[in-house]
């Protein structure tokens, strides 16, 4: 039975909602104040929340609770409600992560539809996460090219040591997979593999996330404590702001830290692996990355090649991805010709190949003609050029603007060697705002 949290300071509204949802076999928790809700959210789990915007406190409202929930579980669906709705409230709610916005008095059918869709969406995300985790757990570094054979030999040599590792390679080449493989082969594999993605750091709560915090009598462990006796993987390390780099350096040097709101020294022992898709030595020269931290991270250096530099591995990779998505590795009855695979330049590297095989598995349905069309429309250079040069007059204003912004920002990123901080200065944007824009336009740094 799905558990739904309702927070509204109007008793009648709470009663009506509880009656409706109980009738549809939901387990309902109703609360009337910010204080009650805050305590419940910090100590309990639930599947969906219905929050009124205006509650019993002037300084804190439903949007405060929305942010509290999202900090704990970003994928949990939250529906905001208001009887004093306006466009701005709705926009702010969705911008802060609300799944939907419901105006009072609400329509029962609309309410139930929102709840049903919210729970289905959450379940879909969880299923996707499980598949993602299983994919990584079952991963064996695939390839027989000399570049990959060299990497495999390195894995066997370095996995049993505790030396810090720095992995270089273009976006999509498998840096996280390589880090996981090293962890899996190490004597730390019974403990956690913890990822700190520097490109997604929220400076406002960084200390809380990395060091942990004592909050309302409850201990919330940070990345460092979770990684104790295991492996900490700092992805996109080039995106760490300088002040954060200093904090990371101090932890590496001292092997201890303090949680927020706590005076106790916590000693940690983890293997540190970091990665970058841009030239980190160049970042040091330009003053964007601390030289002392760079040398601390770069004890053992591994360089992952782009897929275009290991084309001979493509059949093995296709075979492997077919076994994941189709259930068997016999791709040859579906894919008759690999010529386009060999002539394509694979800007998204192994990730792009994986996505193509997944698309074939979903849309192809063992239909050779359909599969050939998918491959041709994706990999044929002429088709891609025609798509790029297609007339923008066929687009809506928003689509045309998004296309322009995407092309412009991609060029600016390339000009700045993928460095977000430098790109933000070049285009006159705040770094955090640029990060959000890159994410909304689905631009990945290479």
Gross geometry = globular
At the fourth level of CATH, the homologous superfamily of the largest domain is: P-loop containing nucleotide triphosphate hydrolases
User: Roughly what is the average pLDDT, rounded to an integer?
Assistant: 85
Tally of structural domains: 4
Strand content: 5-15%
- The helix tally amounts to 20
pLDDT < 50 stretches = none
The radius of gyration computed from the alpha-carbon positions, rounded to a whole number of angstroms, is 25 Å
CA-CA gap between termini: 44 Å
Helix proportion range: 40-55%
Class based on secondary structure composition and strand pairing: alpha/beta
Largest sheet: 5 strands, parallel
Topology:
Blueprint: E1 3-7, H1 11-23, E2 27-31, H2 34-43, E3 48-52, H3 62-72, E4 78-82, H4 87-95, E5 100-103, H5 108-137, H6 146-158, E6 165-168, H7 175-184, E7 193-197, H8 206-211, E8 213-215, E9 218-220, H9 223-226, E10 231-235, H10 242-254, E11 256-258, E12 265-267, E13 271-276, H11 280-285, H12 291-297, E14 300-303, H13 314-325, H14 339-343, H15 349-364, H16 368-379, H17 381-388, H18 397-415, H19 420-427, H20 431-440
Parallel strand pairs: 1-2, 1-3, 3-4, 4-5, 6-13, 6-14, 7-10, 10-13
Antiparallel strand pairs: 8-9, 11-12
Helix pairs in contact: 2-3, 13-15, 15-16, 18-19
């Amino acid at each position: 039975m799905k558990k739904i949290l309702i927070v509204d300071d109007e008793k009648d509204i709470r009663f009506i909602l509880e009656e409706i949802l109980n009738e549809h076999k939901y387990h309902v928790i109703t609360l009337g104040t910010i204080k009650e809700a805050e305590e419940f959210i910090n100590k309990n789990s639930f599947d969906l929340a219905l929050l009124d915007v205006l509650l019993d406190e002037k300084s804190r409202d439903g949007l405060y609770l929305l942010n509290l929930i999202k900090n704990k579980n970003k994928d949990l669906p939250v529906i905001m409600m208001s009887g004093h709705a306006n466009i701005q409230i709705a926009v702010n709610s969705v911008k802060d992560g609300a799944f939907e916005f419901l105006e009072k008095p609400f329509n029962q059918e609309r309410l139930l539809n929102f709840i049903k869709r919210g729970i289905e969406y959450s379940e879909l995300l969880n299923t996707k996460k499980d598949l993602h985790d299983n994919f990584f757990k079952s991963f064996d570094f695939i390839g027989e090219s000399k570049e990959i054979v060299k990497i495999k030999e390195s894995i066997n040599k370095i996995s049993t040591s505790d030396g810090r590792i720095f992995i270089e390679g273009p976006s999509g080449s498998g840096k996280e997979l390589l880090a996981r493989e090293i962890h899996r082969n190490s004597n730390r594999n019974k403990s956690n593999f913890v990822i700190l993605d520097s490109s997604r750091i929220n400076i406002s709560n960084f200390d809380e996330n990395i060091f942990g915090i004592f909050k309302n009598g409850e201990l919330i462990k940070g990345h460092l404590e979770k990684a104790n006796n295991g492996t900490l993987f700092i992805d996109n390390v080039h995106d760490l702001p300088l002040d954060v780099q200093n904090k990371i350096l101090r932890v590496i040097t001292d092997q201890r830290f303090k949680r927020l709101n706590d005076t106790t020294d916590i000693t940690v022992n983890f293997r540190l692996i970091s990665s970058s898709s841009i030239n980190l030595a160049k970042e040091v020269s330009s003053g964007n990355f601390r030289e002392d931290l760079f040398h601390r991270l770069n004890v053992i250096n591994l360089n992952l090649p782009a897929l275009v530099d290991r084309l001979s591995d493509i059949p093995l990779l296709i075979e492997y991805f077919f076994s994941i998505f189709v259930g068997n590795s016999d791709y040859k009855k579906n894919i008759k010709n690999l010529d386009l695979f060999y002539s394509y330049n694979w800007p998204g590297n192994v990730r792009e190949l994986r996505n193509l095989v997944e698309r074939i598995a979903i849309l192809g349905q063992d239909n050779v003609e359909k599969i050939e069309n998918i491959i041709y429309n994706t990999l044929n250079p002429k088709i891609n050029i025609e798509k790029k040069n297609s007339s923008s007059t066929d687009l809506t204003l928003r689509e045309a603007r998004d296309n322009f912004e995407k092309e412009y920002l991609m060029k600016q990123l390339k000009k700045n060697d993928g460095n977000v901080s430098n790109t933000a200065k070049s285009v006159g944007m705040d770094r955090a705002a640029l990060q959000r824009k890159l994410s909304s336009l689905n631009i990945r740094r290479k």
